[in-house]
Specification:
There is one protein chain. The longest helix has 26 residues, at 2-27. The chain has a single domain, classed as Single-stranded right-handed beta-helix, Pectin lyase-like (Pectate Lyase C-like). It is α/β, with parallel strands linked by helices. Helices cover 15% and strands 31% of the residues. The radius of gyration is 22 Å and the shape is globular. The protein has helices spanning 2-27, 63-71, 100-106, 350-353, 373-383, and strands spanning 57-60, 78-82, 85-87, 108-110, 115-119, 125-127, 130-134, 137-142, 145-147, 155-157, 165-167, 173-176, 179-184, 187-189, 200-201, 204-205, 213-216, 220-225, 228-234, 237-238, 253-256, 259-265, 269-270, 274-278, 281-285, 298-299, 304-308, 311-315, 335-339, 342-343, 346-347. A hairpin with a 2-residue loop joins strand 15 (200-201) and strand 16 (204-205). It has five helices and 31 strands.
Length: 392
């Protein structure tokens, strides 16, 4: 009897330890895969480096270590955990950029297939860099503060707009010709180098920032969820050119539960793509001295956008046309439908106030549960951005 009691106690203790370890493992987001509720769940799903062997899990804190980890083992599943700030202009990576071409080489962080990049804690940061997801598949990027890069040599274009403008290159993150990508719980921001701190030339701000997160060149099955997009002008470009007609039928992208604060435009601007935008929160001011609000959702050439349960709290916006507009040629229009969205507390009324768009008619292929617009303003800020998931 005594032996049986001791054996039972040992078995119970072992089961409790196992349960505790399982719970701890489950709570750690490092090996999570893209959930249902977005395009990244399609085409077999997006698993990133979730199956990586222990030898292919890296903890890095310098540019050299990051680039080495990403290049190791080719396309074998890998997890790269980032601790602290990785600055591509640090002495570890050769110091400050000396020219546009130098920046083009040394700022790029090329991500291979079957990779998860994830920040540890709430202060993992990448700066002076472009995370480049190009011609690969099955990539996850989570829990990072990504400071949008500043082009060291903006170019003046006298034909841009009525009086000319400065144009720059380099995005915070770009997805190009890639499939199955999940971008989740990150912060994208110009801070601390916001546009009001930039010098002027030819009477205009010498704009050194380009996009925050762009998706282009036939990319598919991309989910962009629970991110904070803050203090930026041209934020999200889906489809880079009207002339790239091969994008039609591609650019399948979901934006859900993202928090857009002081974003002037392109949240997102869409060409060609089947883009699902639901339960996002947009906050801005049309009269702001920096990042004055222009619009959020831009259905441009052949865009096919389904919008649901989004909330626009924008000072000075009084009509749907203030938050949804075609930013391109009036002869090249897109399609959009909306269900249940709110503008400053009232129904958006896209059908009556934004009548220059046709109706998007495609069917969403995945299961999803939108947060009701009445709850978006509290739910999204509480859950979006870094430090909201556990990375042990």
């Amino acid at each position: 009897m005594f032996y049986r009691q001791k054996l039972a106690q040992r078995m119970l203790a072992a089961s409790l330890i196992t349960a505790s370890m399982t719970a701890a493992f489950a709570a750690d987001a490092t090996r999570e895969t893209a959930p249902a509720g977005g395009w990244a769940s399609q085409n077999g799903g997006t698993t990133g480096g979730s199956t990586a062997a222990t030898a292919d899990v890296y903890l890095v804190s310098t540019p050299t270590a990051l680039l080495a980890a990403l290049s190791n083992a080719g396309s074998r599943a890998k997890i790269v955990r980032i601790s602290g700030t990785i600055d591509m202009t640090s002495s570890d990576n050769g110091g400050a950029f000396t020219s546009h071409s130098d920046q083009n080489v040394r700022s790029k962080i090329a991500v291979p297939s079957n990779t998860t990049i994830i920040g540890v804690g709430s202060n993992a940061t990448i700066k002076n860099a472009t995370i480049n997801i190009d011609s690969v598949s099955n990539v996850i990027v989570r829990n990072l503060t990504i400071i949008n890069p500043c082009d060291v040599a903006p170019v003046w274009d006298p034909d841009d707009g009525d009086t000319g403008n400065w144009n720059s290159e380099f995005d915070g993150l770009v997805v190009s010709n890639s499939k199955n990508v999940w971008i989740d719980h990150n912060v994208f921001t110009d801070k601390p180098l916001t546009d009001d701190k930039l010098e002027k030339g030819n009477g205009k701000i010498k704009q050194c920032h380009d996009g925050a997160l762009d998706v282009k060149k036939g990319s598919d099955y991309v989910t962009i969820s629970y991110n904070v997009f803050d203090s930026h002008e041209k934020n999200n470009l889906i489809g880079h050119s009207d002339s790239n007609t091969s994008d039609d039928g591609h650019l399948t992208v979901t934006f859900n539960h993202n928090y857009f604060t002081n974003v002037a435009e392109r949240a997102p601007r869409v060409r060609f793509g089947k883009v699902h935008v639901y339960s996002n929160y947009f906050v801005g001011d049309r009269s702001a001295s920096v990042y004055a609000y222009q619009y959020s959702i831009g259905p441009a050439y052949k865009a096919k956008i389904i919008s649901e349960q989004n909330v626009f709290n924008v000072t000075g916006a009084t009509t749907c046309a203030h938050v949804i507009k075609n930013p391109g040629s009036s002869s090249k229009t897109g399609a959009i439908t909306d269900t249940g969205s709110l503008l400053n507390g009232s129904a958006l009324n896209l059908a009556s106030n934004c009548t220059n768009f046709s109706q998007a008619s495609w069917t969403i292929p995945y299961k999803y549960t939108p947060t009701s617009a009445s709850n978006v303003a509290t739910t999204v800020p509480a859950n979006a951005g870094v430090g909201k998931i556990t990375v042990n």
